[in-house]
Design goal:
Blueprint (H helix, E strand, L loop, with lengths): L12 H47 L4 E5 L4 E4 L1 H7 L8 H4 L9 H11 L2 E7 L2 E10 L6 E8 L1 H39 L5 H32 L5 E3 L1 H18 L3 E6 L6 E3 L1 H17 L6 E9 L2 E8 L33 H11 L3 E7 L3 E9 L10
Parallel strand pairs: 7-9
Antiparallel strand pairs: 1-2, 1-5, 3-4, 4-5, 6-8, 9-10, 10-12, 11-12
Helix pairs in contact: 5-6, 6-9, 7-8, 8-9
Length: 392
């Protein structure tokens, strides 16, 4: 832009001042114009991304619902509107969802999402089972929540049929195995007079294999009983659970020449839990720790409060678990093959049973281990893990 006088003379001071003011205003106007263009381009990009996201969410078969922090409905895709019969006048999620569709323990869900921004649970709607994944959005403060539902009805039925088949097969195998073990003892008595070392070794090998099969079948049946059983929820102090578990395995620890002790933090609240199931889980963990700890080692059991959970820890000075095996230790039938544990017997179902019990109580289980130094298993159970019911 060029500014010039008609007579070709120099600008006077007042004219220069006026031009300076005009140039400053022109610079601001140009800057605002650029910002406006950038804002318009950014708005167009956001609207395009929003349209793409809405197209994807609308076309998916999984119900998707979004609400703000006051539980006002922001978005529900066609699948969610059809499932919950949502009308155009629906304003709140409270008007939209049946009570069974919300988490049983809302505070536990909020705490979980604050820690890891996600929470999953199962819901039943119109004779269908859904896995509901909740996530919160917002950076400095909670803006709201998004729920994505996945229909797992058929998967649940397949799992039930598989479990029923495994249970029936295992039950049918258990009786013949018991008979085989009994007859083997009779055979051992008959062969005692022969004093043939090779025959005795063969009989011992057969007995070990039959006992291993018996442990596996018993473990499978225990797992299925846990899955099918009605939990008896009662108020139990953590110290009672720890004392009972340690007492039941103390003789085994003495046989293995492993020191076993426990400690319970002061002023712990009671747990709402199935004491029998939780006791069984702790026994499995303590027995495992003893099995994998050499003579002269020690196993320590500790219970303390961790926020709104009771944390049980079982620490040993055993052989430890290699890092590459740690993600699989809770899998069914998994047994480590590291050196130094060849003599340890087991079905490979003990830790899987522990995981089932912990999940029944909406808890968490994990481990830390260093090869050659030992392993610590952690079990965290929410203080209000369940609702009260009666044993069936």
């Amino acid at each position: 832009m060029v500014i010039a006088g008609r007579q070709g003379r120099l600008f006077e001071r007042e004219q220069v001042y006026t031009l300076e003011v005009l140039s400053a205003q022109a610079a601001v106007a140009i800057s605002h114009s650029k910002l406006f263009e950038e804002q318009r381009a950014l708005t167009a990009q956001i609207e395009s991304a929003r349209d793409q996201l809405e197209t994807v969410l609308s076309s998916t078969e999984s119900p998707v619902v979004a609400v703000d922090r006051h539980f006002r409905l922001i978005f529900a895709n066609p699948a969610a509107r059809a499932l919950f019969d949502v009308g155009d006048d629906t304003k709140s999620i409270v008007d939209m969802l049946p009570g069974s569709a919300l988490p049983q323990n809302g505070f536990a869900a909020l705490r979980a999402m604050r820690r890891k921004r996600a929470f999953s649970y199962e819901i039943h709607v119109h004779d269908r089972v859904f896995s509901c994944h909740l996530a919160q959005y917002g950076t400095k403060k909670i803006g709201g929540w998004v729920a994505v539902l996945t229909d797992i009805t058929q998967l649940m039925e397949l799992d039930r049929l598989k479990s029923e088949m495994v249970r029936m097969t295992s039950h049918d195998l258990k009786n013949p195995l018991q008979a085989a073990l009994a007859n083997l003892e009779l055979l051992r008595d008959d062969l005692a007079d022969l004093k043939d070392p090779e025959i005795i070794r063969s009989v011992d090998t057969i007995e070990r294999q039959l006992e291993r099969m018996f442990r596996i079948i018993s473990g499978i049946l225990d797992m299925e009983r846990l899955r099918a059983a009605t939990r008896y929820i009662e108020q139990v102090h953590p110290e009672q659970i720890v004392e009972r578990a340690v007492s039941e395995v103390s003789d085994f620890a003495e046989e293995q020449r492993v020191s076993l002790d426990y400690e319970v933090a002061r002023d712990l609240p009671c747990l709402a839990c199935d004491a029998d199931q939780l006791n069984r889980a702790l026994i499995n963990l303590i027995e495992n720790a003893i099995k994998f700890t050499p003579e002269g080692g020690c196993v320590h059991v500790y219970a303390e409060r961790l926020h709104e959970e009771i944390l049980f820890s079982i620490a040993d000075t055993g052989v430890g678990i290699p890092e590459d095996m740690q993600p699989r230790v809770f899998d069914r039938f998994f047994r480590g093959n590291q050196r130094g544990v060849e003599h340890v017997s087991g079905s490979g179902l003990g830790l899987s049973l522990v995981k089932t019990v912990v999940e029944n109580h909406r808890g968490r289980v994990w481990l830390r281990s260093v090869v050659g130094q030992g392993t610590t298993f952690f079990v965290a159970i929410p203080i209000m893990a369940g609702t009260f019911s009666t044993r069936s």
